[in-house]
Amino acid sequence: MEPKIIPAILVKDREELLARISRVKNFVETIQLDIMDGAFVPNRTIGLDGLAGLPEANYEFHWMVQEPAEWIRHFPGNHMHIVHLETITSFRGLQELVEETGGRLGLALNPETPLEKLIPYIPKVEEALVMTVHPGFSGQAYMPEMEEKIRKLRASFPDLDIEVDGGVNKKTIGRAHSAGANLLAAASAIFAQDDAEQAIKELKECALSGCGE
Ligand code: DX5
Predict the structure, then answer these.
(1) 20 to 30 Å CA-CA from 28: which of 140, 170, 199, 205?
(2) So which residues are the catalytic ones?
(3) Which residues contact 82 (CB under 8 A, 6 or more apart)?
């Protein structure tokens, strides 16, 4: 499937959030907002107040929070809500809530969570996100051993949107895409560069041609 680059924004304040959105919004279809509550992961990002009244764009929320329903209910609209499988207490309740907001539901899987736990939910969600780092921080090293999950998912679900997140850069993106991920989230490989547009372009080229080690 065609690779799509998704800039991931992990920030603590609104000024930085708006600055990052404006650096990438003209060059991509979707922007990921990483939200952390300091409970599900040992880091805390911008909260509900800072997220109010976002600029017009196509967002996906990556909810690294213990109680995703308490956050999702505040964001009506056609957003993608990526929830960690590890946090789900009632899948049906979550599905209904996301439907009520007019959004779409995706599921994310931490590195230590076996793929088998995700499989039964796949027909009921819009995408699967395979973490290639332990969630919490940008700039960590990509875990190539997670590619087995991606390969198995792709083999079973040829049309599924499969996203990879964590340590995606020019060296790793080719192998993530070859394994079967079509959505490629990256934070530092885009925002730590001077020219975000160029970084996005190069990531896409490397996804297709492999600029790896
Ligand atoms: C990890 C987050 C990622 C992270 C990616 O906790 O879910 O989206 O920001 O950062 P990089 O691309 O720098 O590994």
Answers:
(1) 140
(2) 34, 165
(3) 32, 60, 61, 62, 63, 106, 107, 108, 127, 129, 163
CA 131 from chain center: how many Å?
Answer: 8
| pLDDT per 10-residue tile (average), the chain, 213 residues | 97 97 98 98 97 94 98 96 97 98 98 98 98 98 98 98 98 98 98 98 97 79
Output the six-digit token pair for 176. Answer: 């993530």
Q: Determine the Cα angle at 156 with ends 153 and 158, to 5°.
A: 90
Ligand 1 in reach of 185 Cβ (< 6 A): yes
Domains and CATH numbers, the chain: 4-209 (3.20.20.70)
Alpha carbons 3 and 179: distance in angstroms, whole number: 12
Rounded to the nearest angstrom, the distance between the alpha carbon of 103 and the centre of ligand 1 is 23
Ligand 1 neighbour 106 (Cβ under 6 A): no
31 near 6, Cβ under 8 Å?
A: yes
